[in-house]
Amino acid sequence: MDGAQRIALGSVAVGLVVLALKTAAFLLTGSVALYSDAAESIVNVAAAAAAFMAVRLAAAPPDRNHPYGHHKAEYVSAVVEGALIIVAAAAILHEAWDAFQNPRELALTPLGIGANVAASAINGLWCLVLFRKGRTLRSPALVADGRHLMTDVVSSAGVLAGVGAVAVTGLQWLDPALACLVAINVLWSGAVLVRSSVGGLMDEAAAPETLDRIREVIAVNADGAIEAHDLRTRNAGRLTFLDFHLVVPGDMRVSAAHDICDRIERALQDEDGDMVVTIHVEPDDKAKHAGIVVL
How does it sit in the membrane (predicted)? Predict the structure, then answer.
């Protein structure tokens, strides 16, 4: 089991602990706002389990049916997580509407509030782990899980503030109103998550700053060639696939052109060890006098 899988499995364990604490907080207080917090934690557990399965599948080596590997499984997980977030928001809105119609007396005990505070603190600390490890391991599933948990932390802070306002003012309608705001926030986070994941499934290009660095590395390390053009990139999980055409003098030996390609590939992989490079060599009559000029 690699690092990404261990972190993803850790998310499942953390999610179960947080769910237990938030459920206890709801049962002890009867607050629909705290119910909304617990409902989001159910999604967290399901999403963490989906992320673990996706990371595990993504780690599988290429095979006959998937010669480029299984890395896009992580994007599928993130889309599933976004869909689960939307389901959670619908459940929260349903419960909030019922609370509007049938106002409930809250029992805001220190034990109930303390359970929710403890759960939020655990989520906040785990968010930091997911962001750091997700970016280091270039795992969309872990980063998506971190973003989702960060939304949960923000929601929990708002819920606790609102429950405190109910205790101070005695206005019971503030509790379901706050739950509605949490649901809207959850829906927004789900939409953002699905959008970013669909981008990965649709083979979005590398970030502009990454493309600039790639062009610079090619220009510096293609000595002997004339130009490089038609550069394309796409991201698939932690991998970046890159291909381009390299124009060399028409009378250059194949072995010499191959040496240039090897040099470029080594330089690019020194820059990013998760880059898969494909170079198509062309003679000088194919030059477009555009793209990357060799320095």
Answer: Multi-pass membrane protein
